[in-house]
Design a protein that fits this description.
34% of the residues lie in helices and 19% in strands. The chain is built from 18 helices and 22 strands. It has an eight-stranded mixed beta sheet with strand order 5-4-8-2-1-11-14-13, with no helix packed on it. Strands 16-17-18-20-19 form a five-stranded mixed beta sheet, covered by helices on one side. A four-stranded antiparallel beta sheet has the order 9-10-15-12, with no helix packed on it. The two termini are 41 Å apart. The protein is an alpha+beta fold. The radius of gyration is 25 Å and the shape is globular.
Length: 641
């Protein structure tokens, strides 16, 4: 299976490929650097290739050894998105299949996009600093010189010297995870070497590191399963984190194994990061990173973990060849996440999740009305185009809806599940394109369904699904709305109430939402956004009566501000914009920045529509609290770059 060129890499992975990497790192919080070496085991794909080209970005490369001897290297011209090609001269007369070791000594720099260094005051304990990485989509090259493309998967080992506990997206070799913290040495003072191994080939964007004052707690063992799971967090959060995840993580993973091949990574741990983490979760192999906004004390948001662990098969197992095919990671994961919600809860929960997702899809499609290329499911990126510019819920939601449409076209979930199992089994460990996926889809149904199923596939509007632009899906999707009806009815009452200016006569009560779970409250707030903006008095009453003004649940608070800022020119928007601004940067008394891009980006955009000056001032004053990825994208959203 020949893969196409990746438009975001300058490496020559198609000529000579890195298949294993050894990291030897020292973490220096004083200098805010990771330094040491990376050793590649490379295999020739074409005979007599005379150089290996690696992606590098904002790295200080000091020397290179080729087979333990000094090697010649050069750094090419820097590209704003792709970074700098690092070229290493190789010996001649090598055949296809030959291997060679190349060791590169280097250090990260202050311009490293993958790393965020947090001062101790930005952590929960406020005693020790903190470091974490985010390498997806193309930032691993700023952590180490790599062939930074998901088309070239690697296994890796790592030795990390640090005065604070270190975690990686791999299996801990030493010291033992369940032993004393920092191997019993003094945290923050004594250097401990942490060793890891990742025997399963993964794309470079899954290389991850986190360093901080962590504690570990094993989650309940699932009988008959060889894999283990646990939770990591700062000492001040470990009890809350364990409680939030203890009942569900093992159950989620074992349920996934009832419809998918066995989990391959041996360990499934969850790490609760500081609030500047820009995503809800990141599916780093063996170690899912999650936002602390999930710790709401009632387990209502723990289903985010279903999405991240599903990536163990879709993304970490069957992987997009490059960012053009990102939907193969996220569309599939979102679709399977919702299948698991049906198995874990009810069919109505699956439909409800699609319903909530449809609002975020509409918002994303509207966001790109002036850049319709990014409304497509399959985006043909130009060479050097930044895939993060297209980051939205489109590949998640349009992709999941496409697969739901295919499921319905081909006879329903019961007949679709065996196909899913076969798809994953066929491509596990491989990187693929949309064309590879489609060819397998046809081959499977031709064999298992014959002429009838092929006819159904031939009726699919393929080009409209893959390359369609605009605000509508190629077909109208109908979802199970059973769990939404009460929320819809309540939203309708609020809409009708706008004619009554006297709040005391409205008749709404706190008990209106007493039986609602968090998702039903989300649907209430989203439904309200489908109506004209409510008057300021009504929005204030809504927020105080139902607790949206003070809720620690960021999913609810963010959506309440979206209701309040719906009409940018309204008195309500002018009144609530400052409160929303203080909330998103953690100046609302909580001290917690809302660094997750799901919250901070749309909140800043909404504030800017109401008061651009306020949005720019508040962001500029607090921008260093946000992760470099979020910071850069918010700057673009606000027109600052």
């Amino acid at each position: 299976m020949t893969l196409p060129k990746d438009p975001t890499t300058q490496s020559n992975w198609q000529d000579i490929t890195s298949e294993h990497v050894d990291f030897d790192w020292t973490v220096d919080f004083a200098k805010e650097t990771i330094s040491g070496s990376v050793t590649h085991t490379l295999v020739w794909r074409k005979a007599d290739v005379r150089e290996a080209i690696f992606d590098a970005q904002a790295l200080d490369v000091q020397k290179v050894l080729v087979e333990d001897r000094p090697g010649d290297f050069s750094l090419g011209k820097n590209h704003e998105v792709m970074g700098t090609p690092l070229k290493v001269v190789l010996p001649s007369s090598r055949a296809v299949g030959d291997k060679i070791r190349v060791q590169i000594f280097y250090s990260t720099t202050k311009d490293c996009t993958a790393l965020q260094w947090l001062g101790k005051e930005q952590t929960q304990g406020k005693t020790f600093p903190f470091l974490f990485s985010q390498c997806q989509p193309i930032y691993a090259r700023s952590l180490a010189p790599l062939q930074d493309t998901p088309s070239a998967k690697i296994t890796y080992t790592a030795k990390v010297k640090s005065v604070l506990p270190a975690l990686l997206s791999a299996i801990r070799v030493s010291p033992p995870a369940d032993g004393p913290a920092h191997d019993g040495k003094e945290i923050g003072k004594d250097v401990v070497t942490y060793e890891y191994k990742q025997p399963v080939p993964i794309p470079s964007y899954l290389v991850a590191i986190a360093v901080g004052n962590f504690r570990y707690r094993a989650l309940p063992k699932i009988e008959g399963k060889e894999w283990t799971s646990g939770v990591w967090a700062e000492p001040e959060l470990i009890d809350a984190a364990y409680w939030e995840f203890s009942e569900d993580v093992g159950r989620f993973l074992s349920t996934a194994e009832t419809i998918l091949p066995p989990y391959r990574f041996g360990v499934y741990d969850v790490l609760v990061l500081p609030p500047s983490f820009p995503y809800g979760g990141m599916e780093n192999a063996c170690l899912t990173f999650v936002t602390p906004t999930l710790l709401v004390g009632d387990r209502t948001l723990v289903d985010v973990v279903v999405h991240e662990l599903t990536h163990s098969w879709f993304g970490n197992g069957v992987t997009q060849a490059n960012s053009t095919h990102f939907w193969l990671n996220e569309g599939w994961t979102t679709y399977i996440e919702r299948v698991l919600l049906q198995l874990l809860h009810t069919p109505a929960d699956r439909g409800f999740s699609f319903l909530i997702g449809s609002k975020s899809l509409q918002d994303a499609l509207k966001q790109y009305e002036n850049k319709p290329k990014y409304q497509r499911l399959v985006i043909d990126f130009d060479v050097g185009e930044d895939p993060d510019d297209a980051y939205s819920t489109v590949p998640y939601e349009k992709g999941a809806n496409f697969l739901l449409h295919l499921e319905r076209m081909l006879g329903g979930l019961e007949v679709f599940l065996p196909y899913i199992y076969d798809y994953v089994s066929t491509f596990m460990g491989k990187s693929i394109t949309t064309e590879d996926w489609k060819a397998h889809l046809y081959a499977y149904w031709e064999k298992h369904g014959g002429e009838e199923k092929v006819k159904a596939l031939n009726s699919v509007k393929w080009d409209e699904w893959f390359y369609g632009e605009g605000l509508k899906l190629p077909v109208e999707m109908i979802y199970d709305t059973a769990l939404a009806r009460e929320a819809f009815a309540l939203a309708e009452k609020w809409d009708a109430s706008r004619k009554e200016a006297d709040i005391s006569k409205l008749g709404f009560q706190e008990s209106d939402v007493e039986s609602f779970n968090a998702n039903q409250k989300i649907v209430l707030l989203e439904r309200l956004q489908s109506y004209p903006a409510l008057p300021y008095s009504h929005i204030q009453h809504l927020g105080s009566l139902y607790g949206f003004l003070s809720t620690p649940n960021a999913e609810l608070r963010w959506r309440f501000y979206e209701v309040a800022l719906l009409d940018p020119s309204s008195p309500a928007a002018q009144e609530f914009a400052p409160a929303a601004a203080q909330w998103v940067v953690g100046k609302d008394g909580s001290g917690t920045v809302r660094g997750r891009m799901k919250f901070c980006r749309p909140t800043f955009r909404a504030i800017a529509r109401a008061n651009k000056k306020l949005a720019v001032e508040v962001f500029t004053e607090n921008k260093l609290s946000f992760h470099p990825i979020a910071r850069r994208l918010i700057e673009k959203d606000l027109g600052l770059v």
